[in-house]
């Protein structure tokens, strides 16, 4: 069930910083709900990275593939549709996703997540090994796409 957007706010708002590779403990759900940006690196180590994402209503991550990186994505708030497949234009595995759902994307698998709700879709994403530079903040999808190219 879709949650009221006002419930998707971080109870401890503040600037999110990449705390890696130092030991760090946090409430990932609260951090994800409070993240206003498309992508923010919360913790980057030598072998693992956690990013937070905020996908606006009607928005999407965009079809992508990580040839050498496994990815774990958790829905922290909102609802969406995950699509995966072996070919970029044939994402045949599709499933509705909700808060607390987990998505496992093996390296070499094409995937996309679309926000089908009315509130921002809040995600946490673990990459192994890290996929983005330490301290990455992409305020918008367009900024993220420009950084990738």
TrEMBL record:
Residue span of region Disordered: 130-149
SUPFAM superfamilies: RmlC-like cupins (SSF51182)
InterPro entries with a match to the protein in the record: Cupin_2, Flavonoid_dioxygenase-like, RmlC-like_jellyroll, RmlC_Cupin_sf
Ranges of compositional bias, category Basic and acidic residues: 139-149
Gene3D superfamilies recorded: Jelly Rolls (2.60.120.10)
Residues covered by the Cupin type-2 domain: 52-126
Spans through the membrane: none
Name of the protein: Cupin domain protein
Species of the source: uncultured Eubacteriales bacterium
Taxonomic classification: Bacteria, Bacillati, Bacillota, Clostridia, Eubacteriales
